[in-house]
Amino acid sequence: MIDHRSSFYMPEGTYLNCSYMAPLLNDVEEAGIRAIRQRRNPGEITPDHFFKESEEIRKLLGQMLNAEASRIVMVPSVSYGMANVIRNITLGKGKEILLAAEQFPSNYYPWQRLASESGAAIRTVAPEPGAESRGRSWNEQILEAITEKTGVVGISNVHWADGSHFHLKKIREKTDKVGAKLVLDGTQSVGALPLDVEEIRPDALICAGYKWLMGPYSLGFAYYGPHFDDGIPIEENWINRKNSEDFKSLINYQEDYQPGALRYEVGEHSNFVLVPMFHAALKKVASWTPSFIQNYCESITADAVNEIRGLGYSVDDLPWRASHVFGIRLPDHVDPVYLKKILDNEKIIVSFRGDAIRVSVNVYNSADDVKKLVYALQKAVKTTANSL
What we know:
Layout: E1 8-9, E2 14-15, E3 24-25, H1 26-39, H2 52-65, E4 72-75, H3 78-87, E5 96-100, H4 109-118, E6 121-125, H5 134-145, E7 150-156, H6 168-178, E8 181-185, H7 197-200, E9 204-208, E10 220-224, H8 274-288, H9 290-310, E11 325-329, H10 336-345, E12 348-349, E13 351-353, E14 356-360, H11 367-387
Parallel strand pairs: 2-12, 5-6, 5-7, 7-8, 8-9
Antiparallel strand pairs: 1-3, 4-10, 9-10, 11-14, 13-14
Helix pairs in contact: 1-8, 2-8, 3-4, 9-11, 10-11
């Protein structure tokens, strides 16, 4: 088996926390260092540097997502990409904004703003309490909640807290029937789970780049579908206007924007350090492919998940959760505070999100890494049993 771990600078301990932030790829670090050194001499930065590498990033993402490159733009954050969405969706009183419960705040606060300004109501959907399969119940509840009142569904492909997998094809079919928009947060899935934009047809897809796309912090992307073609961006910057490549004619002010969705791209998106780093990351992820990464993650976690369940913990079934990120819920007899101490002592790095332990693996992990987690969970069960 190829040693993918050697492609990364790995932190000390057992890192099972890519949903928090990906470790730094060696290629990304080297690209950043080269870019900083090039920045020493501004004379080496030509007009091409403002456009060329950004376009290559769009093409890579377009190939990964089966999407038109001109509909993909770079944004500094999910909240920025969502702000463009909110500015260009019109809802009236009586309409509902449908959200999954406990979404990440950057995919809640913008909708809260839209609701307060439009008179629409936010409706959050949770799985049925005590459902045998949390993910299955959640999907069923969401499909049932999409009605003629629904104006937009704002959702992720994979829930950030526990990896619950929302089946977007069925959700898109239901939104089509009622004429609702579908806006996706792909931060916890794009790069590690295949997503076909041509098949799902989201109206918008926003994604941070520092998790499963393994890029630098403060740079991600947004995809905007045809609904947004004539919209108004949240900022007006020179580089998004027609003929901005012609520096000598920039004062010939243009009414028209660059083609596709480029009107929504963040100002100074040519960032001469972060863009080369993001490009290097995407080339590496594209060489592995999201399909390979998802299958690899399943291969190193399948046996461990069965063992974890045997210890009394709860983990949802595939396909109602992802393989690259999943939640472990504790039995009543395991003390979460003591379990966290065990994990800290063993230097097993995971996240606690809500009532779940969030485990998120990638190609730098192995089955042995996940086995260490199993031993820690087993130790917590045995310690608790001995204290009774």
